[in-house]
Amino acid sequence: MAQDQITNDVFETIYLRRSVRKYKPDDVPDETIKELVKAGTYAPYSVKPPRKFVVIKNRNMIDRLSERAKKNCGWTAWMSLTQWFRGSG
């Protein structure tokens, strides 16, 4: 693939990006999740220790996390969820 085509694909992806706030109730296939996590490992990252990915498939847990995130925003939501995952929130 030519460099110009790669650049155009990147810009097209950026310009056509959209936010999704409602999702289908269907489960995401395991192979798709694995591919998404793999793609995430290719993103630039400079913090040590290495990052970790958490995949949550339990609908009840997803709903609880969603409600908790809606009550908070930004960094405070992240810290709140981090504490919750560790069992102290």
Architecture overview:
The mean pLDDT is 78. It is built from four helices and no strands. Helix content is 56%, strand content 0%. It is mainly α and 89 residues long. Helix 3 (59-71) packs antiparallel against helix 4 (74-85). The protein has one domain. The chain has helices spanning 3-15, 30-41, 59-71, 74-85. The chain is extended, with a radius of gyration of 17 Å.
Task: Output the keywords.
mainly alpha; 4 helices; 89 residues
What best-fitting shape do the alpha-carbon axes yield? Answer: extended
Helix run count: 4
- What is the ordering of alpha helices and beta strands? HHHH
Distance between the termini: 49 Å
Largest beta-sheet characterization: none
Q: Kindly state the percentage of residues in helix.
A: 55-70%
Rg from C-alpha positions? 17 Å
DSSP strand count: 0
Report the average pLDDT across residues. 78
| Unreliable stretches | none
Number of domains: 1
Draw up the topology in text.
Blueprint: H1 3-15, H2 30-41, H3 59-71, H4 74-85
Helix pairs in contact: 3-4
Short summary of the structure?
With 89 residues, the chain is mainly α.
